[in-house]
Amino acid sequence: MRTSLFAYGFRAQFLLAGCAALLLVPVWASNLVLGTPLGSTWPPTLWHGHEMLYGFIASAIAGFLLTAVPSWTGEKGFAGWPLMMLAGIWLAARLLIASSAAWPAALVAVVDLSFLPALALLVGLPLLRTRSRNRVLLLVLALLWLCDLVFHGALLRANLPLALHAVYVGIDLVLLMVTVVGGRIIPAFTTSALRPLGASAAIRDRGFLTVLAVSCMALVTLADAFAAPPVLSGWIAAVAALVQAARLLQWAAWRTLRLPIVWVLHLSYAWLPVGLGLKAIALLSGAAVGAFWLHALTIGALATMIVAVMSRASLGHTGRALVVHPLTTLAYVMLTAAGLIRVFGLTALHLNYVSVIVLAALCWSTAFALFVGVYAPILWKPRADGKPG
Fold it and tell me: Whole-model pTM above 0.85?
C-alpha cells in the first residue's frame, strides 16, 4: 500500500507523538503500581518526565513546526528524506533510552540531543531566510535543548534533583510556547468557526493582554529556572493565572459548545489558569488541593492542546472537512477525565493514590488509543482530495 507518511511535515511526527503517548503512560503506571521493571537504568520518575517531554511533546512540536513554518514563510513544505531522518533520530533516541542499560550513557545522550538541533536546522533556515516574526520559536527550541543537555549532564553526575529541575524548566518553556501559539490560533479558529453562525463579532483579542500573558509566563519560567523563593514564585504564578484567565474570557468559549474541534482548544487553554492557580496555592499555602498542579499543566494544558492541534491540522492538511469524528470527541472527554482524576482524585474524589494512578492512566490510554485509531489511517494515507502533501 502506498503511504504518504513522509509527504508532509505533520504526518510522521503526529503519529509518533500519538503512539508515544499511548505507550509511555501505561508503562509508567505499571512500574509505579506493580513494580514492573523498566529497561532503562534511569530513575523511573526522571524517565517518565523526560520521555513525556522529549518523546511525546517534542514530537508533537516537531509536527506542528514542520507544518506551520511553510505556511508562515510561503516556502515549500518539508517532505521525503529530511522527515525520514528526523523520525529516525526520534525513534532511535526512544529505543536507546528504553534500553539504556545496554548502551553507554554518552551514546544515549548524543542521539537524544540530536533531535531538536535537527528540527531547528530544518525549520530555522526558512524562518531566518524570510525574517519571519516566528523566529523567536528558534530561541525556545534552543532553550529546550539546553534543558535536555543539563538533564543528561546531571544524570551522568548522578545529580538527580538537577535533572528533575531541568525537566520542570523545559515544561515551562513549552507552556510559554502554548501561550504564544495558542493565543494566535484560538481566536483565529474561533472567529472562522463562528462567522457562519453570525457570532464572530463576540471574539476579542486585546493586545495588552497578549503582552501581559507572554510576559507572565516568561517570568514563571525565569522564576523556576533560577529557583526563586517559593513565595515569589507563588505570587508570580497567581498573577499569571489571573492574566491567563482574563485572556481566555475574551475569546467567548461558551459560543463554541456545539463545535468540539473548537471548544477543545478553549478547554486546553483553560487548564493554564487552573494549573497556575493551583501552583500558587501549593507554593503560598501548601494546601493539598494544589499538590498536583504540575499535572494540571501537563495533562490539562499541554496534552489537550497537542491533541486539539493534531486532530485539527491532520484534517485540514489532508483535504478533509474540519469536523472531528465522534470518537475524537470522546478522546477529548477521556483526556479531560484523566486530568481531573490525576489532579483532584485525592482531594475532591477521595480516591486512594493507586486508584488515582490506575484510573487516570486508563482514561489517558483510552484517549490516545482513540486518537491513534482514528488518525493513523489519515496520517498514513494520501490526501482525500488527491493533492500532494
Answer: yes
Angle between helices 304-316 and 160-194 (to 10 degrees): 50
Question: What whole-number distance in Å separates Cα of residue 83 and Cα of residue 104?
Answer: 27
10 and 313 Cβ atoms separated by less than 8 Å: yes
What's the gap between Cα 186 and its chain centre?
15
User: Rounded to an integer, what is the distance from CA 285 to the centroid of its chain?
Assistant: 28
- DSSP reduced 3-state for 217: helix
Domain ranges of the chain: 9-188+283-380
Nine cell digits for residue 44:
523511573
- The model's pLDDT over 77-89, given as tens digits with 9 standing for 90+, comes to 899 999 999 999 9
Distance, CA of 223 to CA of 320 (rounded, Å): 43
Please calculate the CA angle 369-179-335 and round it to the nearest 5 degrees.
Answer: 20
Neighbour tally for 286: CB within 10 Å: 10
Task: Collect contacts of 219-227 with beta carbons under 8 A, ≥24 apart.
Answer: 220/172, 220/175, 220/276, 221/169, 221/172, 221/173, 221/175, 221/176, 224/165, 224/168, 224/169, 224/172, 225/169, 225/172, 227/165
How many whole angstroms separate alpha carbon 315 and alpha carbon 375? Answer: 9
Name, in order, each residue with C-beta under 8 angstroms of 66's C-beta and a sequence gap of 6 or more: 8, 9, 10, 13, 77, 78, 83, 86, 119, 122, 123
In this structure, are residues 383 and 389 in contact, taking their beta carbons and an 8 Å threshold? yes
In three-state secondary structure terms, 214 is: helix
Distance CA 298, CA 302 (A): 5
Element (H, E) at 264: helix 260-284
pLDDT in tens, 46-103: 999 999 999 999 999 999 999 999 999 988 889 999 999 999 999 999 999 999 999 9
C-alpha cell at 374: 482514528
Quote the CA–CA distance of 26 and 18 in Å, as a whole number: 13
Residue recorded with cell 498542579: 293
Cell of 352: 486512594
